[in-house]
Amino acid sequence: MNAIVLATFIAYFVIVILVGAYFYDKKTGMNEYFLADRQLNPYVVALSAQASDMSGWLLMGLPGAILMAGVGEVWIGIGLAVGTYFAWLIIAKRLRIYSEKADNAITVSEFFTNRFEDNKTLLRVVSGIVILVFFTFYVASGFVAGGGVLKAIFPDVDLSLLIIVGAAVVIIYTFLGGFNAVCWTDFLQGMLMLVAVVILPLALIGELGGMDAAWEAIESVAGLDPNFSLDMMSVGAITIVSGLAWGLGYFGMPHIMVRYMAIKNPEDIKRSRRIATIWVIIALTCACLIGLVGRAWAESAGIMTGDFNPEHIMIYAVDALWTVAIPVLAGVIFAALMAAIMSTADSQLLVAAGAVSNDIYKHRKGNDISDEKLVWISRAVVIVISVIALVIALGDNKTIMNLVSFAWAGFGAAFGPLVLLALFWKRTNSKGAIAGIIVGFAVTILWNTFLGSGLIVDGMQLTDNPLNGLYELLPGFILSALAIIIVSLATAKPSKDIVDTFEAVDAECNAVKPLGIRGTGAAAVMSGALFIIGVGFAVLLTGWDPMQTIGVLNIAGGMEGAFAFVGTFVAGAALAVAGYGLCANRKDAKMAYAGALTVLAGLCFMGAGLFDLGVSDFHFYLRDAALVFGGLALLALVWRNVERGQYMTAGACIMLGVVTVLVVFSGSAILTTASAIGMVLCALMQGLKLMASDEESY
Fold this sequence. Notes:
By secondary structure, this protein is an all-alpha fold. It is 77% helix and 1% strand.
């Protein structure tokens, strides 16, 4: 290995350890060690959250998956980008405020316990167990990735020893500095990761002779390898839905949520959201490019032989391009790979340590134990969990992608629905919370075992199962949410103190509206206008019967496909935004229901535009679901309009709502199309009303 590369790489390790040493304090309290005393600035919070989120998956797992399978894996990136934005938009500020009002909770488990006044601490223990199980797998994936990077730099050293060395560095600065050290190193590592992920695809494109030559090379690979596709829709409905479902995971990630809780000023969340979203979009786009152009470059370089590992494409490229020519740059990129891995592993170790020391040990031994002692117990737990994760990393031959996928699904399904309902539904109680966590946890494990990779019976794989291969996060998330709702409604209502705290948080969060009432109306009008424009031009271009066009509209390719995309996906997105505006600006529960149903209608309408009718019937399922949700939303609006004496609007809405729901179940394409047109006209009418309103809420 080039001495300059090695020196640059080692310098990175020294810097992160020094950061840990800088924040080391023997008298650190639990609030400082686990939450930086809620004093982090929005820039550190934003980059720390995203760096701890992406891990080695960003620079190794995702490019490797795209390199082998093509652009079908891009759906995961799209799901993550959308999930990132909506997690920051929907839960970040409310969780920051609520966690402080809930007896200054410093971990996610403690927030659940305090939010529901679970005096038996059963909720705390169950949450802690889930965190320990899935974070152990998550940390193991980081150790596997770190060993791979170190192996490229030290090819003659045993891989097991390198995995241990990489893990030791993470353990040292996490042990010393706690959350402050983790966040500041993540901030530095986030910037380093962005530099690496932008530079490499540009360099590979240059090696292939420019953009045109690179694209020709990629197309050539697609023509020769039937498993490598450039058609995003060819992967099928299950793969698309599974990829997009990754975005749901953000609502349940403990190591990301603690960043929301640690920001100094809740009003700075908006700034953090913008920074984080921009970072994620750039990083994911470039990571996907690395997979595509990396495949073309690897084929041209003749390295896809023998023990070629697609997840190491960045390592191969950096070694070939810059180890000799620009060794300092090679050292920086190798450091960035380690940064991606370490920025996630350190966060997960810290949260897992908190689950044991603060959420389990402290409440088993009593509250009289000192913070200083708890911090040292936490440091000991960091080492114990690291050792367990090392055993998994050293003995497991699964890919980084598989390990991350399993842990991500586990957290998203177990905690995601509970976080949303705990923050937005005051009827949620502790029994419902426990039921939701257990159901999400169990479904993730069972689905991954029996359906995630296909059912195996008597040595034969059952490929005709329509759920075969569906990412376990989606069914786990849905069933967990249903468990919370059903059990909460079937058991006692929350106490007055719990409800009062909820309402105080709700009032503070709604003091500043994220989307005004006129902005909500504009989104509704835009949705209707985009639908009309998209459908109108699709009809003109294809010559289809207008009454049939809307019923089967989806992305079909060509110019008509572009207009179909505008009329379905983009219009559906605008409708979802309008629904969110109704939720954010509502005066009562009826508007909240109408808004939530409108969001679902918009999301289903977006999905309906993505599926090719020749490949999947999901288009029809999602189209009908969109119309049903829209019809129910109209009925909720009718109720509100009647209360306000707006009988003409109410009459029009009730007719459209009832007709929509009935028509969908009639099975008639013409009637369904007519229902869609009526729905659009109603959205326009309601949108224009809101735009003309002088009210601050609806």
